[in-house]
Amino acid sequence: QRSWTGTGIGIGMGCAALLWGTVLLACSCGPGPPRVGAAPLLAATYVLDDANGLGREFDGIGAVSGGGATSRLLVNYQEPYRSQILDYLFKPNFGASLQILKVEIGGDAQSTDGTEPSHMHYENDENYFRGYEWWLMKEAKKRNPKIKLIGLPWAFPGWVGKGENWPYDYPDITAYYIVSWILGAKQYHDLDIDYIGIWNERAFSSKYIKLLRYTLDKHGLEQVRIIASDRLWEPISFVMMVDSELHGVVDVIGAHYPGTKTVPNAVLTGKKLWSSEDYSTFNNDVGAGCWARILNQNYVNGNMTSTIAWNLVASYYEELPFGRCGLMTAQEPWSGHYKVESPIWITAHTTQFTQPGWSYLQVDGHLGGGGSFVALTDGLGNLTIIIETMSHNHSKCIRPPLPNFSVIPQRATFYLGGSFYMVETLQVWHSRLDFESGNSSLFQQLHPVNVWQGRFSLDLNVDEVYTLTTLKTGWKCRYPEPPPPQPFPSNYKDDFNIRNPPFSEAPNFADQTGVFEYFVNASDPGDHVFTLRQVVVQRPITWVSDADQTISVIGNFKWVNMTVTCDIYIEKPRDGGVFIAGRVDNGGIYVRRTKGVFFWVFADGTYRVTADLAGEKILMKGLAGIRDNAWHTLTLNIQGNSASGLLNGYPLWENVTISNPGNGWAALGTRSFELAQFDNFHVE
């Protein structure tokens, strides 16, 4: 029995080539006598053989940007930090090396952590440069031309349903709207969309899916595949079994958070089965354990050949729902700070040593002492084995609940047969999640393992991941540490004076209902040519309960005392209105229950101060004498438990007592889905 141990060799910048491991790699001679005083390891053998054919085709590991606004803060990182983050996500043999990018087709509505703008706000409107998903797809393709792209709507602009909160009453309109997005991706960005979804986690319509296929084919998009239904395995699997036409047009059955299990009907369809949204877990080491476990067990238990994480990168204010549920964290563009979290390196164990189009081997995949393994081949003699031994409490995902199981230290002996019998050595990559000291070792290259007469053994501890592979292409790459974290600037101004903005939205503003875009106010000869404008004028077909008001938040959630100043312009006569606000305590899927201090002015000349976005808890009201289609300056001052407001520099109301919330963001917005403009925003 030979074993290699040693001390870690420090590697400076760039890529670590080889790190001598401290983990015992037993090879060639079987278990041997147990160590004195040590309990003998559970030992089991596993056969990897392709002589009787292969298992399912592997379709790749990916992540979701959107659903919603999860990449919002990423776009205004300064270089080189923004490119570094993108490299860690997409660059092959670098970091996560993602093989699939799924994006939200923006629908102007709240879709978890914010709204994403539609390419068609109105029926006669088309603009394929809004938002940031186009940019993100291009950046991903720039790094990995082979990456697969998926589009999926969470919501739709109101006109698609002709005012009804339902996208299937006029399926031809919905299909036209979705196909326009795919055509626009190609025409304006040279992006080929590979897969298209139906409606995220909501009902599907068989009639619509068939019409979507017809519309795709009519526009020469035969190569675009359809995923359905991005919800549960049923009822889509059953309906496909009894409707042969539907069966013919759905290429992939995508389920969300399947808990590594599938259902008989899904398997019986003979279709590809994907976990088309999974993970959604806080990105500490338990999140990494969750991710490691499901990446293997989605195939081992559920025949799923692709797993897609929500979300790609946590680039949204952390106090919004599901803070830091991304593969890495980049939520401070103002400082440049970001963090490459452990799920990035767990991803690399699979993605750096496989490609979509490889095949799984036909193995059971369950380890005798708990945990799992998968084996994949390119059919050309290459072999990659990924082993995980995640314990129950260190691999809980956010959902569904995880039944109890146990994992113990064990010795695994693998016999390689068929075309793998002649393999002599395997490269070894190793991660160990350390929940005692918090000193995890992630994606380290150990000494290769020798295969003797088609056989090798490995001592496996708990909470480990191993990759053993014939490929020599793996790299763990590192950039220098990014700048240290800093809070949002305590004195922040934006006059929106930018002639050709790189993105449609102003930096750091996180829209929670409605869409706020840069606007060129050509009719204004004065100081307000370049403004920020709320542009959604009809309630969208929503995914959750959007507010009845529009709102965009900004700043530091911990802010207590603040002064917010903004020029405002009400465009809607009679019953239009706008607000500025402080201590705003909510957003995302909970936006309807948002509280704070809201200073409203209305086109009828009145003002109000309310303790909530809904405007139900009135703290003060009166006459302001303002009018629509004219610029006015609002100032809101919050100190301790008192607030006051100024109009055009003169006191309008003061000494309003406020009890809670005690802290929160600054915000601006409108009374309803209406056009309005904002300029010279300043918070201190």
From TrEMBL:
Q: Which reaction does it catalyse?
A: a D-galactosylceramide + H2O = an N-acyl-sphingoid base + D-galactose; beta-D-galactosyl-(1<->1)-sphing-4-enine + H2O = sphing-4-enine + D-galactose
Residues annotated as catalytic: E201, E277
Q: Which UniProt keywords apply?
A: Disulfide bond, Glycoprotein, Glycosidase, Hydrolase, Lipid degradation, Lipid metabolism, Lysosome, Signal, Sphingolipid metabolism
Q: List the InterPro entries.
A: Aldolase_TIM (IPR013785), GH (IPR017853), GH59_C (IPR049162), GH59_cat (IPR049161), Glyco_hydro_59 (IPR001286), Glyco_hydro_59_dom (IPR035394)
**Could you mention a single GO BP entry for this protein?**
galactosylceramide catabolic process
Primary location class = other
What top-tier enzyme class does this entry carry?
hydrolase
Tell me where in this chain the Glycosyl hydrolase family 59 C-terminal lectin domain is found. Answer: 511-684
**Cross-referenced PANTHER family:** GALACTOCEREBROSIDASE (PTHR15172)
What is this protein called in UniProt? Galactocerebrosidase
Species this chain originates from:
Donacobius atricapilla
What gene does this protein come from? Galc
